[in-house]
């Protein structure tokens, strides 16, 4: 029997609130806290001179330092942030000789960006002179070159060179880091950037920072009133630097009024009312052109097909945050291939690792092997010369075992080299002397001597683009329960095909990676189809015994199995991937179908978002999700069983004392399907050697030796064993997917009885 499991990587952080979380519109405080947590081990300080030499090469040899003496004398100290900014802006804008060249500083602390749904506003920034932000004194994330934040004193300094993780200890400093991280995230979201710069004023002190998808490198603080030339040289250099040095992606060109691209997109925008009802791709493309977001021409360089150009508007998906892949997806208009005008373009910063394959190559291989229900790769390639550089500023020290080396390398990670690693405890106790805060310790099962090695926790990311033929719609927009089940079954079939035909496991099954292809009369397509997408993190069976490629968590938190969430060192098995499909079904059913759960938000948060804190900003599986999977019953937090309904529940009578008649509800058949699957996975957890939790208060009863030969009606314990064997057989790929193939008829039968979901 094949050991169909793959080395996993430790869960470190819960995901940011967003499209898959219970709180899709988090408050400002929540957003800042979450973004700040993602920056742990992703911050690094450099001395001012070293920072300037690394990121803004000298172009200011003609600057006379003496001419700027006293430039910031009128900036008040200790009076408040808003009082500081106007004299600061006036000093730089009015300086002679001119410092900012073709740019200007704008005060934007009063008005938010019109197209920013979160209504964020920076204190100010450096903008092109013709930017609307200058005249309107309004934040404009699409055109800001350098954002500036003012704080009245050093207690709000967002950076700290003296902490092991680069993460400040004081709450006021952490809040400030979260605040500027949201601004940095917005610049990446609204522009096509390789990196960008920021300035934070702290009373009379200042710091510079450079942000990319690997992390942020900040300068040592300096007194800009005593040493004004340090700040002058920064603005002088950045204002006269090339677009590439300032961080602009030179393969992304903004579409401006009067250009041929602009006229072409305007013509498409005018087609809105003439498009056929089932031409969902064109309708969604036209919708992406509306609003205040800029339009862009993007170039994809393919080694086989050469360069291909595409026009895009608002992304259909944009990952939040600063560090990481920063994935964005667009419905794109092909300029280079008129025969296939509308395609899907994925723009991301893939993690660079020796054994990682390009997603386009993975898809092409799966396409060639006949894997069903996956996208068709058209063009793909790295964006030449666009690689993160923050990680290159980290410098290893020769002796990783000495405390001094750890102090000098606050961003180093201490890994354990061990076989069959198991945690020393379920919480944070027992941390070794040279383990990082926030990094749980593991020792081998045979108590071998621990060995250590130091790694940079900043990862190398390469800009990458992929174009595929199919344009789907999000799974959340399923029109009926029948379609939901059918589409998930198609995705499971793709999972089966990929493993059996190409020996590839997906390893990131989530609701965002399953798309719906609706019927289309023009194309002769009569049925809904599901696609399993985003194969970037997939892994071949031949790599199953290799070390994890990425030191951060692989997968999407909300849909990972209890097994992989609870055990950071656990290997991902087919059973874990199939459990993810079940979590997707529960997510969609709870969120969009009628049911008896009274508090959807509480359920969604507790089941999908919640986690148990292990170390600072590091989590394992939440208690409620584990409880449901162990019990095999879907219930709310009060223990009340959840029923799915064909139609919304009638309202409860205001005065229930006047009636004794119970309300009649009509159960939705998807409920029976979910319960059946829950019981299967519950049986699996009963057979696992208590790996899921070290502090469980239940144990597995002994199994009868003659179970297989018994002709008697199975007991409750025997039923558990039979169900568990069904799930444990998923350790064999053929048995796993044969079981699913047999059940697919049941999936379809139950799904077809479903009614149209009641949208909230």
TrEMBL record:
Cited PROSITE patterns: PROTEIN_KINASE_TYR (PS00109)
GO MF terms, alphabetically ordered: protein kinase activity
Superkingdom to which the source organism belongs: Eukaryota
InterPro entries, per database record: Kinase-like_dom_sf, Pkinase_fungal, Tyr_kinase_AS
Region (Disordered): 389-411, 422-441, 741-760
Biased composition, class Basic and acidic residues, residue ranges: 396-409
Name of the protein described by the UniProt record: Fungal-type protein kinase domain-containing protein
């Amino acid at each position: 029997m094949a050991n169909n499991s793959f080395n996993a990587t430790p869960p470190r952080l819960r995901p940011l609130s967003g499209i898959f979380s219970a709180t899709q519109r988090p408050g400002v405080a929540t957003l800042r806290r979450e973004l700040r947590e993602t920056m742990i081990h992703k911050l690094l300080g450099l001395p001012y001179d070293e920072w300037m030499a690394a990121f803004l090469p000298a172009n200011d040899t003609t600057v006379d330092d003496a001419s700027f003496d006293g430039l910031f004398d009128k900036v008040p100290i200790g009076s408040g942030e808003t009082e500081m900014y106007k004299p600061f802006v006036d000093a730089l804008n009015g300086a002679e000789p001119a410092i900012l060249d073709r740019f200007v500083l704008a005060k934007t602390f009063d008005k938010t960006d019109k197209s920013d749904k979160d209504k964020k506003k920076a204190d100010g920034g450096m903008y092109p002179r013709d930017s609307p932000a200058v005249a309107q004194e309004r934040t404009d994330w699409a055109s800001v070159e350098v954002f500036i934040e003012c704080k009245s004193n050093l207690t709000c300094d967002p950076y700290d060179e003296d902490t092991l993780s680069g993460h400040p200890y004081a709450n006021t400093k952490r809040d400030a880091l979260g605040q500027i991280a949201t601004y940095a995230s917005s610049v990446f979201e609204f522009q096509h950037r390789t990196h960008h710069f920021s300035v934070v004023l702290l009373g009379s002190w200042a710091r510079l920072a450079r942000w990319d998808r690997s992390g942020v490198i900040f300068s040592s603080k300096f007194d800009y009133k005593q040493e004004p030339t340090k700040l002058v040289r920064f603005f002088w250099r950045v204002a006269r630097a090339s677009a590439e040095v300032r961080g602009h992606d030179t393969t992304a060109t903004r579409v401006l009024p009067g250009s041929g691209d602009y006229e072409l997109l305007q013509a498409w925008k005018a087609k809105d009312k003439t498009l056929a009802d089932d031409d969902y791709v064109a309708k969604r493309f036209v919708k992406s052109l509306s609003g205040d977001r800029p339009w862009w021409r993007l170039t994809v360089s393919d080694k086989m097909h050469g360069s291909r150009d595409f026009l895009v508007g608002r992304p259909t998906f944009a990952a939040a945050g600063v560090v990481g892949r920063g994935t964005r997806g667009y419905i794109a208009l092909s300029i280079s291939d008129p025969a296939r005008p509308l395609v899907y373009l994925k723009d991301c910063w893939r993690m660079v690792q020796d054994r990682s394959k390009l997603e386009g190559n993975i898809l092409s291989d799966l396409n060639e092997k006949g894997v069903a229900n996956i996208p068709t790769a058209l063009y793909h390639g790295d964006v030449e010369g666009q690689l993160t550089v923050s990680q290159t500023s980290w410098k290893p020290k020769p002796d990783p075992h000495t405390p001094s080396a750890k102090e000098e390398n606050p961003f180093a990670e201490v890994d354990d080299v061990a076989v069959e690693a198991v945690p020393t405890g379920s919480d944070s106790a027992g941390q070794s002397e040279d383990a990082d805060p926030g990094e749980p310790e593991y020792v081998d099962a045979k108590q071998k001597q621990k060995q250590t090695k130091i790694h940079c926790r900043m990862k190398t990311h390469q800009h990458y683009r992929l174009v595929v033929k199919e344009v789907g719609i999000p799974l959340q927009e399923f029109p009926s329960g029948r379609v939901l089940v059918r589409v998930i079954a198609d995705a499971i079939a793709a999972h089966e095909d990929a493993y059996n035909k190409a020996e590839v496991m997906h390893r990131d099954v989530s609701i965002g990676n399953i798309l719906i292809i609706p019927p289309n009369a023009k194309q002769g397509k009569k049925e809904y189809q599901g696609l399993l997408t985003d194969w970037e993190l997939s892994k071949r069976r031949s790599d199953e015994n290799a070390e994890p490629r990425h030191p951060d968590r692989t997968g999407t938190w909300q849909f990972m199995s209890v097994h992989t969430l609870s055990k950071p060192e656990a290997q991902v098995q087919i059973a874990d991937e199939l459990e993810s499909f079940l979590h997707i079904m529960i997510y969609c059913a709870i969120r969009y179908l009628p049911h008896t759960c009274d508090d959807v938000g509480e359920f969604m948060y507790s089941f999908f978002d919640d986690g148990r804190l292990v170390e600072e900003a590091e989590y394992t599986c939440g208690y409620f999700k584990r409880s449901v999977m162990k019990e095999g019953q879907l219930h709310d937090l009060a223990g009340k069983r959840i029923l799915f309904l064909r139609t919304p529940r009638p309202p409860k009578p205001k005065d229930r004392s006047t009636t004794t008649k119970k309300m009649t509800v009509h159960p939705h058949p998807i409920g029976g399907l979910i319960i059946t699957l829950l019981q299967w996975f519950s049986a699996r957890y009963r057979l696992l050697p208590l790996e899921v939790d070290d502090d469980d208060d239940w144990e597995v009863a002994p199994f009868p030796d003659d179970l297989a030969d018994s002709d008697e009606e199975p007991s409750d314990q025997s039923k558990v064993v039979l169900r568990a064997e069904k799930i444990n057989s998923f350790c064999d790929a053929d048995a796993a997917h044969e079981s699913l193939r047999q059940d697919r008829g049941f999936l379809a039968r139950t799904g077809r009885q479903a009614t149209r979901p009641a949208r909230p």
